[in-house]
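Researcher: I'd like a structural prediction for the single chain below. Treat it as a standalone chain; there are no partners to consider.
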Amino acid sequence: MNSTTPIPSYPANRPLELADKAFLDPIFTQMQPSVSELTFAGLFLFRNAHDYRLTLVGDAPVVLGKGYAGDAYFLPPLAGDIAAALEVLFGSGLVLYGADQPFVNSYLVAADLQVTEDRDAFDYLYLRGELAELPGNRFHKKKNRVNYFTSRHDYEVDIFQPMHLDGALGLLAEWQRVRGNDDNRSAVHEASATAEGLQLAALLGLEGVTVLVGGAVAAFALGERLNRETSVCHFEKADPFMEGISQLVDQQFSSRLFTDCTYINREQDLGEPGLRAAKLSYHPVELVRKFRARRIL
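Model: Treating it as a single chain, here is the predicted structure.
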C-alpha cells in the first residue's frame, strides 16, 4: 500500500460510509481494477443492497457483503498483506466473490481452495470507439434505431447537470411504474441506487449524459472512470416508449465522456436472458471473468 495512504483504525465490520471515499479512492487508483464493483461509487450506492461493510484484516482493508439471497461473502482484499488476509477470511468459512483472473493467478492457487467461474457476474467490456461510432455491418441495426429516433424527435443531448436531476428522477419513477410490481430484488435495489447516484453525482465523481425531448429528460446514463483505460457505465435509463432512444443515450455516453479511455465496462447481466442478449448484441471485445473461491473443508 502506498505509504501516503494511511490506514485508519476502523472498528471491525462497520457499514460503509460516504466519508470512506477519501480513504478508498487512492487505493482504487493504485489498484487500477478491472471489475466493475471496485469503485467507491459502485460500492457505496449498493451498500444497502449488499450490506457492504468495511473492516481491516491485519493491515488489509476488506469489504464484506451479502448476495441478494443473503449469502455472505467478501470482496478481494484491497491492499496490505493480501495473502495473510485471505488466510484469515477463508479460515472463517467465508466465500470470496469478484476475483478477476490476475487475482486468481496470484493468490488462489492453493490445492485446498475451490475456485469457480461466476458467469452471471462477468463484466462486458467494449471498445469505446465502436460504441461511439457504431461502425460497419455488425452495428447496422443499432445505428438504424438511432437514426429512427433522431429522424422523428426534436431532441438535444446535454452533459448531466443538477438542473436535470428532477427530470431524471421523474423518468426513473416512470420506468419503475411501467415495470409494475417487479419482485426482482436486484431491479428494486438498482432503482434505489440509481436515484441516489443521480442525487450524489457530484460528490461521488459520477459523470453522465441526458437526452432531452421537448425539454424533458427522456434518457440518461451515468458512470465514472474505472481505470486508466476504462470507464464504467453504472446506470442507464430511457423512456420505454421511444424507440431508439436507449441506443442513442448509449452512443452519446460513449462519444462524449471519458474520451481518453479505450474501453467501456458495462457491468454484468446477473443471469437475466434478455439483458444478456442485449449486452452481447453490442459485440463485447472481452468478458471480464470473475470467480468465487472457498476453502474446501
